[in-house]
Amino acid sequence: MAEPLGIIAGNGQLPRLTAQGMRAAGHRVVIAGMAGQYEDALPGVSDDFVKVGVLRVGEWARKLKRMGVSRAVMVGGVDKASLMFMPFWKRVLVMRPDWTVAKLWYRILRHDKRSQTLLTAVAEELRKAGIELMDSTHYIPEHLADAGVMTTHPPTKTQQEDIAFGWPILMNMNDLEIGQAIAVRTHDVVAVEAIEGTDAMIKRAGDLVGSRSKKEDGGWTLLKGAGPQKDLRFDVPTIGLQTIENLKAAGAGCLAVDAGRVIFVDKEDVLKAADDAGIAIVGVQE
Predict the structure, then answer these.
(1) Against a cut of 0.90, is the pTM above it?
(2) So what CATH class is 144-284?
């Protein structure tokens, strides 16, 4: 069997899909599941499983190294918003950050809490401890967005115009590390994703324009992606069935994503759900 590979797992289904891809490639899979984040069924798709603290980066490295892992991926979500707005004393008492995280906070994160800054610093600490983070999409290529129209029906002329209008704005927004999604309707940006996440932004966009969207123009369009500069080791944009349900409820008619750089969780089911909901999905190729 090939070398053992590690997964540092947050919430959602991506850790499961990644584990399946690694095992299909002949690797033994070791999962370090973040306490309170990973799905209950996740230990069952691993060869070895350990629970680790969310704010204990040094612990991640030590436990993976003990099981022979020197390369790993970090996938799955963490509720960053709740962590950020949790009082500092509670973070210390409840989350019990280790010395590695304490040093990161003092040197870097107390000045800059942006996701890219945080994750790059974590990756460097893991590298120093002997764990190299890999491209998180490497073992799930079949779940990445394709270029061009992915659903059975294409976007309308209005939706195509909104994609052309909004895509450069989204890319510039990502360069500023603000968020990974925007909502556009008839050449107007109506909502921008920030720390609240895509689902909350979709609801906000629906509250603003969903009920007033004209049937003939297909509603508003969600653009999601992180651009060619995105570090694919972590925080790759993701679309799932819940995203499609939220878009339908909010009156959206089109979803444009970054081809090859957005993950579809259970891709076939997501595309079918979009077709059933009358939502066009198109992969934008830079």
Answers:
(1) no
(2) alpha beta
